[in-house]
Amino acid sequence: MDLLDDMRIFVNAVEAMSFTGAATKLGLSKQFVSRRIASLEQSLGARLLLRTTRRLAVTDLGRIYYERARRILEDVEAANLAVSSQGERPRGNLRVSAPMSFGTMFLGSVIPSFLSTYPDVSIELELNDRTVDIIGEGYDAAVRIGALADSSLIARNIAPMRMVTCASPRYLEAHGTPETPEALREHALLPYGHSQRVTWTYQRDGHALDIPVSGRLRVNNGELARDAAVAGLGITLLPVFIVAPALLNGRLVTVLDAFAPPEAAIHVVYPQHRQASLVIRAFADFLAAACGVAGARW
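^ that's the sequence the OP posted. Answer follows.
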């Protein structure tokens, strides 16, 4: 193998923070990855990585080498794309993370169409409602819904997204309709979130209004919260795309519309060093177009 190959292995090991992650991403064995990085360190006369039984740590020299090697690989990729047919046709494997409900309700129909359009692309899609560490866990891109945490990731806005507060007509007939966000404290609530403390955000007179919520049932999956609301167990706050069918057929109705939280967005996020990737760009473009066609759902 040449120096560029060893650089590529090293960069992937740093981004995955494990030999196993780099090996999986590159289609190599863990032992081969370990040997090539050891050979690279020997040729450089410097320790780049510190191995422990649980994970890798990058030395100061390793961090400097990683930044330089990453830029070199990006330049090489850009040069290749500029003069080859690959620059016209996305190809390669794409490892994507997406929220569970968004994946089952929307990506199930979009991904087959995307793969038919780009026959040289393969996708490894993992659905998980937690916020994954894209670089550390070896993903190429992820779909994120709602407010984005500050990070070094590139974010492509692919669709607007609204949150609605809703309940079944049967629940509202039995317990009344809340007229203000504060009135939610008198109702059975169905929090959707990943932490023990869930806050629903509304707005009044242009200012954010945070309402801490709790309930007998708290779930980390929007479809379960929706189904519980349809069953009359209480009021929930969910993205429109999860509850749109139930709203259309009357199984759910919205409340507190005058206090609706600000419109958020659905994003495709990816590491900065993947900006030149045609396959990521094609995936984000395709998803944005599909979301545009299904615009009323958001």
